[in-house]
Amino acid sequence: ISIACLRGVIAAITIGCFTGQWFFKPNRAVLLAGIATAATSILFMIANKMTTAANAIVLQYTAPVFVIILTALFNKTRPRLLDIITVLLTLCGISLSVMEHLGNGAILGDLISVISGVTFSLVFFGNRLPGANAMQASYLGCLLHGVFLPFLFFDKGLRSFDPSAWLVILTAGVIQLGLAYILFSKGIKTTSAVSSSIIAMVEPILNPVWVFLFMGEHPGTMAIVGSGIVIVTIVAYNVISVRQQKVSVSEENKPDRPLYDKETTKSAS
Hints:
The protein is built from 13 helices and no strands. The protein has helices at about 1-20, 30-50, 55-60, 65-75, 80-100, 105-125, 135-145, 155-160, 165-185, 195-200, 200-215, 220-255, 260-269. It is globular, with a radius of gyration of 22 Å.
């Protein structure tokens, strides 16, 4: 919790410095997304300490399933067949990519990871509500980490003032959380809740890539196959969605009858 707290506070300072927005206007959407952002970050950090990193990340990314459920319940809309198929294929790909590591984590840690998936879905859902402001929600979510500042006094590791540990926390706060939230807040404005959550699934796929590059751990065959499934699925989903939107817009703008067709020309004559 102390690591999550420091990372969040540093991220809040980073967002404030880059955006110049040190205050926020609370409303239902901002509060929901902000609280969900803080909860997701803290739950994920706890899960990483209680179960394997693979379990923590793959179970958190059940979020699209909960996004579809929330959208169907609150917006009274039926999910498209494309959404359902994409989520199922993506979850299958992620499952394959971490299958070699699943089953090694503690049950409580896995449960916390699933709960973080629910809160993660609320981030996407809240940022699509009327009056939503993803940047302010991210800033609020990072500020809420400050509630856990008292935990710093009980963390023996942080009191040791190990420069390498503090450098990692600083890097995580500025780059991994602060700058990431800034980019996320700008991107989510132009994507749907389901689409944005599916695109974000690239994160657990890149996880073994970073481990391979910096720690020399070779990803297995199943991980490579799973990564390929997810990447292809994400690209196909976005291409199909864009084409469907273009067709829908063209149909809406299409006049009921051409201005100059054979019948109008004949009548005019």
